[in-house]
Design brief:
The strands form three sheets. Strands 8-7-11-9-10 form a five-stranded mixed sheet. Strands 4-3-5-6 form a four-stranded mixed sheet, with helices on both faces. A hairpin with a 2-residue loop joins strand 7 and strand 8. About 45% of the residues lie in helices and about 10% in strands. Helix 1 crosses helix 2, helix 2 packs across helix 3 and helix 12 crosses helix 13. The protein is built from 15 helices and eleven strands. The longest helix is centred in the middle third of the chain and has 107 residues.
Length: about 575
């Protein structure tokens, strides 16, 4: 109040003086005055009687309506029903003034209804506007209304979900909880299958499934509603026909927001109100022709007013006769064709999904097969690469080993040629000498050695016999490999320094042929000390490659030696 101007505060005080201020909060009165431009008279009409249409608008076929009416508290329902003397007088005056307009609109509605032309009813009822309740829990309000309806009528919703009673599920439901017809129809009373979703969801079901919707709107402020609930909604024939034809039944109290919005869209002014909606072919401007566009959701019929006697517009008999005699014969053929088209489209959709899924599966299998082939090719290429790498590595190793062996052979050949030049003594021309016959792998050779010769000289001579013939003695080196100076002592020291041992370094051994006795190499040992005598025969037994690539001879005789006759 402190932020208002002086004339605005005077308007609030004037409105409080006319109304019983203890039942209206000051903030509510301020908000109402702000919505009507601070007009006290308009605010009184809004709070007491509801908005009145301009009589001059009756010449038109439609009236604008507010999709979201002002949200006002309902603290005193008896004041809203017109129990105050001021409201009773205003209702009486308004009813008398609006009577001619009711007659005119009724005649227009009848004439236009014959030609199936939509007509928006002019609202002159004094009880048109009621503030919706619980806008934040609209779905819960529908469920509470169904539960209250069951309690008031002593009947149960034959297809309602347990969530309607328990409130455990927030999704709309039409799952069957009971069966129809009931096991004991004489003592059991049932209600239609009330859908516990929103009005827009009902329309969506009608469009997607091709079903007929039955919208039931009531207002507890009307005296005809209790009898309608007890008699019409529990009538077995009405419940049966709506259940057999799979109606989507939806209802609510217009004091709640969603039913209020539905009442505005369906132009409901009198309660109880029953409307049937379904898809119908779209009509063109010509009344006798149909356009090629798809079907549209159409209000098939409206029924409102008392439900007693049986001839009343909302009685069970009137509704059943209307459904069986007019609505179903007129609507069912088209809906049957439309549902068949829906099922056909659904089958086509499922078939396309199956084909798409099969195509995707085929693509996936092809992709997996290609990936497996690529992976196998990569693995094969990697295996070949590794084998080639291992082969190259083996070849490099073998080549290195060949080079090493070649180097060793060349080094050994240098020692052999040096020994032929420097270690092997010249053959004596008579005198004191030892004549030996030596069988080599290449043949038999006879050689005389000075009696002072050593076993090293004998081995050096035998080793020099393996030198290829193309290597001339005059080309033999004067010094041992490595450029060191010396004679037999240098050779013997070098042989002793080899890790493999003397026998492996020489690559052969010498032995008497019969009886066999091995003549082992020993440094600084003369032939006489080795037990060799003039005329004895020796055999060269090769133990490793000595330069000519030949191994030890294969001996067929028992003593494993070749005879001199060979």
């Amino acid at each position: 109040m402190d932020t208002l101007a002086e004339d605005q505060r005077n308007a609030v005080r004037q409105l409080q003086a006319v109304l019983d201020s203890q039942h209206y909060d000051t903030d509510v009165l301020v908000s109402v005055l702000q919505s009507v431009g601070w007009s006290v008279h308009s605010a009184m009409e809004l709070l007491l009687d509801g908005p009145h249409p301009d009589p001059s608008a009756s010449s038109g076929s439609t009236l604008p309506f507010v999709d979201h009416p002002p949200q006002l508290p309902v603290d005193r329902p008896e004041r809203a029903r017109g129990n105050g003397p001021l409201k009773s007088l205003a209702n009486t005056v308004f009813t008398v003034l609006s009577l001619p307009f009711h007659v005119v609109t009724g005649i227009l509605r009848f004439i236009l209804g014959v030609f199936r032309i939509p007509f928006l009813s002019l609202n002159f009822s004094s009880n048109t506007y009621r503030p919706p309740r619980h806008p934040q829990d609209s779905r819960g309000a529908i469920r509470r209304w169904i539960t209250t309806l069951e309690e008031e009528t002593g009947a149960y919703n034959i297809k309602s979900s347990p969530s309607v009673a328990t409130g455990r599920d927030n999704h709309p439901s039409t799952s069957r909880r009971h069966t129809y017809p009931p096991a004991n129809p004489e003592t059991t009373r049932v209600l239609p299958d009330f859908f516990d979703g929103t009005y827009d969801e009902v329309l969506d079901i009608c469009q997607k499934e091709g079903r007929i919707a039955c919208v039931i709107l009531v207002s507890e402020e009307h005296d005809d509603v209790p009898a309608f609930k007890r008699v019409t909604l529990t009538d077995p024939n009405l419940v049966r026909i709506m259940s057999d034809n799979n109606f989507v039944v939806w209802g609510g109290d217009v004091r709640d927001k969603i039913p209020w919005d539905a009442a505005q869209k369906l132009q409901a002014t009198t309660y109880p109100f029953v409307a049937f909606l379904a898809l119908q072919p779209h009509r063109s401007t010509s009344a006798s022709s149909y356009s090629s566009s798809g079907p549209v959701l159409t209000v098939l019929s409206r029924h409102y007013g008392p439900s007693v006697p049986d001839s009343a517009p909302t009685s069970a008999r009137s509704l059943v006769n209307h459904l069986e005699g007019q609505l179903l014969p007129r609507v069912d053929p088209f809906l049957t064709r439309h549902r068949a088209q829906i099922q056909e489209r659904e089958r086509d959709r499922l078939l396309r999904e199956q084909q798409d899924r099969a195509y995707q599966d085929s693509q996936r299998r092809d992709r997996e097969r290609i990936e497996a082939k690529i992976r196998a090719e990569r693995e094969e290429a990697e295996r070949i690469r590794k084998e080639e790498e291992a082969q190259r590595e083996e070849e490099r190793r073998l080549q290195a080993e060949r080079d090493r062996q070649e180097s060793i052979k060349h080094h050994r050949s240098q020692w052999r040629r040096w020994m032929r030049r420097s270690i092997v003594p010249p053959e004596p021309r008579g005198g004191n000498s030892i004549r030996l016959a030596i069988r080599l792998p290449s043949g038999r050779v006879v050689r005389s050695f000075p009696s002072s010769s050593t076993v090293t000289a004998l081995y050096a001579f035998v080793d020099s016999q393996t030198i290829p013939s193309n290597m001339k003695p005059q080309d033999d080196p004067e010094h041992p490999p490595g450029g060191s100076e010396g004679g037999v002592e240098t050779l013997e020291r070098y042989i002793h320094s080899q890790v493999q041992g003397p026998e492996s370094w020489w690559g052969f051994k010498l032995a008497l042929s019969y009886p066999r006795r091995e003549i082992k190499w020993k440094a600084n040992t003369s032939l006489a000390e080795a037990g060799l005598k003039n005329g004895e025969q020796l055999v060269m037994e090769v133990t490793s490659d000595v330069g000519n690539g030949k191994k030890s001879l294969g001996h067929d005789s028992d003593d494993q030696y070749e005879s001199e006759s060979d």
